[in-house]
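hey
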């Protein structure tokens, strides 16, 4: 009985080993076959979408990290909308892994922000270059030898943009130079205009002063009359030649009265009337003739300036001209002539 039991145990042990051996061999064959046909790899997905297969999760993670955190050159920072997920799978051995494809997809999902430098004028961007140093060098170059009155208000501003867009140094210089030239032209135009206005104002002031001088030297009361017409003296001064006087400088007797006074002294009409002549006339020099009606005329000769024109109505408050020495004259004086019916009469019968 014992013998039978032993044989029975022996038999079963032998069979078990035989089965185990078969299972082991079978498994080994299956594993070998799987290993021949498949390999383990990580499926990389973003938002459920497969972007590729890679062998090594750590290596691809490190690559992505390096790319996202790259701040070389003008890169300020990078942002990725979503990080990928990894799932270990068996893939067909003949399928290539796809690190490059995965990296391209990652780059597509990443936004890169660049930092560049704008050269500004009065806060407005004029040129964008890649470094602060470049920007400053251009500014210094533009400012060199620049008229201190021409202020371009240049500065440098940081520019953050997802587009990397800079211009060459030459282009930047040209652009700033153009701005400089425009500003210089603008400044010079403005300066010329200011000078013109200043000159005009000065002229106006001078004329005002002259007129003041004229008014102040001719405040003279009426001192006589002809046929009931009131007369006033045209200028204050000293009598240097009387009516009827003879001299070597004249061919005939003096037809008027000479009153010496400073050149530029204002001359007033002796009475109201109409200017019948205002211009240059031979030995009279600059001459004004006023018609007072009733055949009475007054002549004002040797003037340095004429302030009236023919046809103009005047009265004894009108400054008609300025004392001078034009025509046949040896020094500044007024030659006053009064004519009645065309014949000169002695002004001193009525004035002075
Ligand atoms: Zn005279």
């Amino acid at each position: 009985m014992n013998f039978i039991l032993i044989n029975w145990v022996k038999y079963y042990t032998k069979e078990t080993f035989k089965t185990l051996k078969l299972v082991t061999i079978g498994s080994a064959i299956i594993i070998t076959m799987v290993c021949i046909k498949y390999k383990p790899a990580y499926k990389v997905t973003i938002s459920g979408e497969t972007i590729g297969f890679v062998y090594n999760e750590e290596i691809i993670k490190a690559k992505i990290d390096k790319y996202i955190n790259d701040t070389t050159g003008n890169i300020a920072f990078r942002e990725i909308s979503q990080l990928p997920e990894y799932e270990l799978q068996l893939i067909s051995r003949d399928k290539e892994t796809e690190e490059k494809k995965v990296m391209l997809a990652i780059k597509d999902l990443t936004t890169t922000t660049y930092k560049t430098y704008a050269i500004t004028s009065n806060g407005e961007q004029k040129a964008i270059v890649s470094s602060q140093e470049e920007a400053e060098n251009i500014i210094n170059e533009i400012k060199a030898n620049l008229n201190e009155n021409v202020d371009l208000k240049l500065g440098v501003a940081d520019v953050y943009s997802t587009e990397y867009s800079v211009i060459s140094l030459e282009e930047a210089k040209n652009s700033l130079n153009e701005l400089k030239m425009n500003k210089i032209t603008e400044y010079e135009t403005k300066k010329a205009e200011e000078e013109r206005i200043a000159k005009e104002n000065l002229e106006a002031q001078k004329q005002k002063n002259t007129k003041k001088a004229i008014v102040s030297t001719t405040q003279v009361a009426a001192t006589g009359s002809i046929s009931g017409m009131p007369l006033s003296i045209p200028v204050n001064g000293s009598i240097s030649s009387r009516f009827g006087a003879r001299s070597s400088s004249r061919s005939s007797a003096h037809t008027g009265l000479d009153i010496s006074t400073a050149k530029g002294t204002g001359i007033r009409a002796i009475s109201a009337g109409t200017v019948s002549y205002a211009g240059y006339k031979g030995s009279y020099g600059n001459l004004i003739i006023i018609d007072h009606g009733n055949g009475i005329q007054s002549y004002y000769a040797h003037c340095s300036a004429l302030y009236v024109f023919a046809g103009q109505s005047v009265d004894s408050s009108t400054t008609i001209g300025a004392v001078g020495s034009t025509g046949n004259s040896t020094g500044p004086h007024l030659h006053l002539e009064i004519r009645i019916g065309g014949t000169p009469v002695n002004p001193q019968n009525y004035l002075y």
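Confidence is low (pLDDT under 50) at residues 215-222. The longest strand covers residues 110-121.
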